[in-house]
Structure of ABC transporter substrate-binding protein:
Amino acid sequence: MNRPVLASAIASILIAGPVSAAEPKQGGDIIVTYQNDVATLDPAIGYDWQNWSMIKSLFDGLMDYKPGTTELVLDLADSYSLSEDGKTYTFKLKKGVKFHNGREMKASDVKYSLERTANPKTQSPGAGFFSPILGYDAVAAGDTTDLEGVSVIDDYTVSIELTAPNATFLHVMGLNFASIVPKEAVDEYGQDFGKHPVGTGAYELKDWTLGQHLVFERNEDYYKAGVPRIDTITFEVGQEPMVALQRLERDEVDIAGDGIPPAKFLQFKNDPRYKDLMVTGDQLHTGYLTLNVTMPPLDNLKVRKAINMAINKDRVVRIINGRATPANQPLPPAMPGYDDSYEGFPYDPEKAKALLAEAGYPDGFETELFVMNTEPQPRIAQAMQQDLSNIGIKANIKSLAQANVIAAGGVKDQAPMIWSGGMAWIADFPDPANFWGPILGCEGAVPGGWNWAWYCNEDLDAMGDKADAMVAEDEQQERAELWGKVFTDAMADAPWVPIFNEQRFTVHSSRMAGDDALYVDPVHVPVNYDYIWVK
């Protein structure tokens, strides 16, 4: 499972990098602004780019990532072991970790938390991530609330049995959906737990005045020494992004949570005053044009190759003020398995025309290009339209609301081409498996699915399954290379035109410190509040 860009917190994944060598300071209070109020702080429910990092700072899971990187590390788990058959993980928990209510976290809390997220009554958008666990199907069907595969061995030991070896499972244990929560707090607040969150995290929620602000306060009992660095974080909501940026320029705001508005981007980029305050990060995201392989004439491989060669990706990047880099394959560069040596299809309109002629379309043809009707997406589609017209293809643009474009993509013979901008997939965790199934695999080529190219290559699906069964540590390099081959082999069938890998830009006040990677953190998106600090 993944989610589209607009609904995603995980929109800012940064290539793993070192954390700042500067000595962090303790203390200080900061202000972060957002235009919209926060929907929820329940880790089983929250699934947008705004609340993701907040939830990460309130809760912990068995696994996490090294700050500012994509390196998976232990969190509430002190250690883990894997059975010889690769199906059972046994986690030893850290002792003395306390919830915000003062009670010590135990193995029974782990079992309860996973079962709560999997339970359909919770209505968690992340429930499907737990489908590899033995007994998940029975829970999902409402037949039981007990996850058979999760066993409490003792107060500090829990085992989790899967139905088959799964190399992505530890990543799942690092998602917000796997955060550990105390049953008594959920029982006390019920549906309002998301407004009264109780976790083990670095911060505690001290005040939430709807429509005005949220205040996070440092958890004095946090199990990690010296973390967090900051005493209080005030999230001011209802703040228009342009106003927030003006306040940041006056040092009244420390982080503009909504980022830099497009109208101010070039000013900030070119102003030397903001050179050290503006942060750039790569995302695990690729913007792509889907080519429906089931609809004539796009069912012709030569036609799809011609379209790949017709699009001027550099020009598309210029339309969005250079906030991306051209792409040549589905995987983004920050993803394990990305093939640096792969060259993809070159921009070559003349070769594209020749391929169309070979395919039997020397005069081109007429088709439709679907796009979301929010800027800059229509302008990007118009650029592609012009490129296609240069090789004789007349692409009529259908600019629709996001929901209508998504619906059209889920109908097999309705949308010949879709520009994914504003709806493209963001990886939920830094693993190539999370980038395949829903958007290029056979499982997504179904009515209502997100594989809008309707591409299904069972041999490549099998290669992906083989890769995901490689769970041993010494197999991970081979596994990443195998996944990389899945994606480059798929490009031989040209179901997509990969257009660009979008970058994230943010800005903070001059009083803020911490490595740049923390401000576009891979997991604590958009900011790792636990490790940034005030000078």
Q: What stands out?
A: The first strand starts at residue 3 and ends at 4. Residues 1-21 have pLDDT under 50 and may be disordered. The longest helix spans residues 476-491.
